[in-house]
Amino acid sequence: MLPDMKIVEEIEGSGGLGGLARMTEVIAALEHRRTELIEQLRSQRLASWEEIGQACGMTRQGASRRWSKQSQAASFGDAAAAYQRGRPSYPVSAVDWLVPGTAKSVLDLGAGTGKLTSLLAARELAVTAVEPLAAMREELVAAVPSADVRDGSAEAIPLDAGAVDAVVVAQAWHWFDPAVALPEIARVLTPGGTLGLVWNIRDHTVPWVAELDRVLHRHARQEIDSAPPIGTPFRAVERLEIRWEHALTRTELLDMVASRSYVITMPAADRDELMHQVTELLDSHLDLRGRKNLTMPYVTRCTRAHL
Ligand SMILES: C[S@@+](CC[C@H](N)C(=O)[O-])C[C@H]1O[C@@H](n2cnc3c(N)ncnc32)[C@H](O)[C@@H]1O
């Protein structure tokens, strides 16, 4: 439902800088009130993060990251090393598709430990990486020394207007507040620039992967929309799926599980039980037992849009 335009017009008055200043004040007051309302809904257990996210046009993860005192997104920092060891990279063909060949500069937003950043840095591109967590940035600087690594977030990008030809977001869009992040991304892009989103999704059509996911989801369910809507000022939204396999050792698979945000934030006893169940699966499943080296099948989902 659109807000009553009469109220908006009243705030704006005769427009100009005065109108802009009044609007800014009202937005700040509304944002403050929104936070209070969310705190009230949570403390009285009147709404879940899922429902609050829906009401705010965000995902559950995005809403809990923004307003929860015990932010799950912040939890990545606690497992940065396991993240770097256990998470897969991305297929080169995804990078080819997400970053136009004509681009000279690219921003990796929510860059984490630099899984995608290192693929970007291997090209003729000026690479900036923005990441809010210090522990992730430490891994990132070590993994990709040539990148310009900065503290910041999707909602407040530390770059000038029109600074980059392309923005890519790997496995992180669901943490952002799209209503704030989209205009912010548009601001730092050159006219005609591109926004690319990518997620590696485990291929559940393979029986042992389905079994692994059953074990993981017994403890927590993480729903991610890997083909999210991208609104104005972006247009010409396109999607691509790439199937591939990631070779990893048994230990790296355990690191991959341990680096999931919902696993990091679990009570220690639940986490121990979950890790025990995954180990049991590795020891007992016909396709896995006795194997040190494994291949995890992935479907990489990509979205691309133009400014
Ligand atoms: C699942 S990790 C993905 C990291 C990296 N892009 C990759 O592909 O491995 C999600 C990352 O998003 C970051 N993040 C969470 N909220 C963010 C926000 N609002 N703006 C920018 N980054 C954010 C987290 O700190 C974390 O490093």
TrEMBL record:
Keyword presence, 4Fe-4S: no
Alphabetical GO biological process terms: methylation
InterPro entries on file: Diverse_substrate_MTase, Methyltransf_11, SAM-dependent_MTases_sf
Pfam families hit by this protein: Methyltransf_11 (PF08241)
Coiled-coil regions listed in the entry: 20-47
Keyword list, A-Z: Coiled coil, Methyltransferase, Transferase
GO molecular function, one term: methyltransferase activity
TM region positions: none
Residues in Methyltransferase type domain copies: 107-195
UniProt record similarity statement: Belongs to the methyltransferase superfamily.
Protein name: Class I SAM-dependent methyltransferase
Species: Kribbella ginsengisoli
